[in-house]
Amino acid sequence: MKIKSDFLVIGSGIAGLSFALKAANKFPDKKIHIITKGTPEESNTKYAQGGIATVYDLATDSYDEHIKDTMIAGDFLNDPEVVEMVIKQAKERLDELLNWGVDFDKDENGNFDLGKEGGHSKNRIFHHKDITGYEIERSLLKKVKEHPNIRFYDFHYAIDLITEHQVYGEMTSLESEKTIFGAYVLNEKSKEIHTFIAPYVLLATGGSGQVYKTTTNPFIATGDGIGMAYRAKAKIADMEFIQFHPTALYNPGESPAFLISEAVRGFGGHLYNLAGERFMKKYDERMELAPRDVVAKAIDSEMKLWGDDYVLLDVTHLDYNDFIKHFPNITKKCASLGIDIRKDRIPVVPAAHYMMGGVIIDKDGRTSIKNLYASGEVTRSGLHGANRLASNSLLEALVFSHNAVEHISKVFDSPYILPSIPEWIDTSTHRNMEKILIKHDLNEVKTIMTNYVGIVRSNERLLRALRRLYVLYQDNKRLYDHSEITTDLLELRNLITTAYLIVEFSRKRKENKGGFYNIDLDKQQK
Ligand code: FAD
Ligand code: SIN
């Protein structure tokens, strides 16, 4: 079946939903389709805790300071023009969220209660208790569903982007000629594959934390956008830069890992090793509020030094009533595991959290494929450089989704003549393959990435990872060619591609920066 619209949005996190709302308002007579795999709300956005970094009041904060903090966290690999553009736009985007009904916490005087996180020189994080993402996702979904010209397709999985390659075949699909025409999409309930056609497409599929064993990202974060963009030959960069959040709750067997927000350290939480030493003083004068890569590396080093499985986050010295007001969800989670934060320290470990690299976009959210825009965690916009400053990613998604709609409104071509798009051709031979093989391969990808491509990498580890991933790639291809197309098989395909890109980009990088650390380069640098 062919399903046509003017705009196709892939993904229903903050990037996709805010784009859809803006496009629907800007083009009241046009049709906007949102497709998302699984349930509408499941996304990284839903789990965001800390909040959105915004310079709101120039009497107490400044753009320059937020810019400087972002550049320092990014190890100066950020694009300074992009950093400035995003940070100066933040207030406008935040006001829009307020208009869309998002509720940010205020203090007893009615002023916004601004939090602090690692790498920030000022309190500038707008939040809704410790469930900011949940509040944003709730408000945006409500708005989107009320909008008459937005149609929402949940349980719809985008398999591949449609470009000249599918329309005219291999020979004509030169990189410079690529244009987007839509996407092939699996209806996860009926199992049919539909052809979604649109002249403008937004890729907003989020991150890929599921490539690692321990991650704060939910199960949907499988690098699908990276896989699709790579196969469509869109330009991709910076895949070696992975952010490990220093403090996920240590609770073996729980997946995804529950996050203990960095805002807890911003609120005064201290880190100790199991020997009782407040170890951050050995690593960085900013102590627990150094940027994430520094704290995560310090924890990793302490765990290795002492042979421990975790370190401890202490909040026992903080005012309990104040703490519970700011962090009700974290307090509840700890209590459910028998951790009384008034007297017990919280066991924490680093966990894969955010991918700095992705599909290259310009300031207007344009990818290297004509009319394919992208926004949010799937992108590499130039904002984050080698490591993202805390609470800058929700902001990034809002800004680039806004810019993309603004850009489209300048170039919108109507009526837009699309070529005749072929329907999906099922070439698989449907041999009866055991489904358990997918599970085995998934575990293997996660093991390879965790053992060889984690916080500390080496040339030998990266080579091992590459060789093993190649075997998995071949096995996956056989499964793909001979089995029924299912979400888990497609996700595995994208996870293998994403893992491969992380490894390949890591092997090419010759200098340690931000979220990338190769011990062999360290020896050379010394
Ligand atoms: P997502 O919100 O992940 O949305 C992606 C969407 O795409 C989902 O709906 C998904 O189902 C859909 N999708 C994926 N693949 C397909 C496919 N093949 N077909 C169809 N649909 C697909 N950032 C901050 O700035 N502040 C914070 O406080 C903060 N806290 C965080 C806490 C946690 C635990 C986590 C995991 C992240 C946090 N982040 C935070 C990061 C931030 O939440 C994400 O970077 C951001 O929400 C990404 O938004 P997005 O719209 O790009 O992607
Ligand atoms: C957190 O609350 O620690 C997460 C913030 C972020 O990832 O930006």
Lay out the secondary structure.
Blueprint: E1 2-4, E2 7-10, H1 14-26, E3 32-35, H2 44-47, E4 52-53, H3 63-73, H4 80-99, E5 125-126, H5 132-146, E6 150-153, E7 156-162, H6 164-168, E8 182-187, E9 193-197, E10 200-203, H7 224-231, E11 236-237, E12 242-249, H8 262-266, E13 270-272, H9 292-306, E14 311-314, H10 320-326, H11 328-336, E15 346-355, E16 358-360, E17 372-374, E18 379-380, H12 393-411, H13 436-452, H14 459-482, H15 487-508, H16 519-525
Parallel strand pairs: 1-9, 2-3, 2-10, 3-6, 10-17, 16-18
Antiparallel strand pairs: 4-5, 7-8, 8-9, 11-16, 12-15, 13-14, 14-15
Helix pairs in contact: 1-5, 1-12, 3-4, 4-12, 7-15, 10-11, 13-14, 13-15, 14-15
Task: Give an overview in words.
- This protein is an alpha/beta fold and 526 residues long.
- It folds into three domains: 2-240 and 356-411, FAD/NAD(P)-binding domain, CATH 3.50.50; 247-350, Flavocytochrome C3, Chain A, domain 1 (Alpha-Beta Complex), CATH 3.90.700.10; 435-484 and 486-525, Methane Monooxygenase Hydroxylase, Chain G, domain 1.
- The chain is 38% helix and 14% strand.
- It has helices at 14-26, 44-47, 63-73, 80-99, 132-146, 164-168, 224-231, 262-266, 292-306, 320-326, 328-336, 393-411, 436-452, 459-482, 487-508, 519-525; strands spanning 2-4, 7-10, 32-35, 52-53, 125-126, 150-153, 156-162, 182-187, 193-197, 200-203, 236-237, 242-249, 270-272, 311-314, 346-355, 358-360, 372-374, 379-380.
- Strands 6-3-2-10-17 form a five-stranded parallel sheet, with helices on one face. Strands 1-9-8-7 form a four-stranded mixed sheet. It has a four-stranded antiparallel sheet with strand order 12-15-14-13, covered by helices on one side.
- A hairpin with a 5-residue loop joins strand 8 and strand 9 (193-197).
- The mean pLDDT is 95.
- The protein binds flavin-adenine dinucleotide and succinic acid.
- Succinic acid is lined by residues 49-50, 259, 261-263, 390-391, 393.
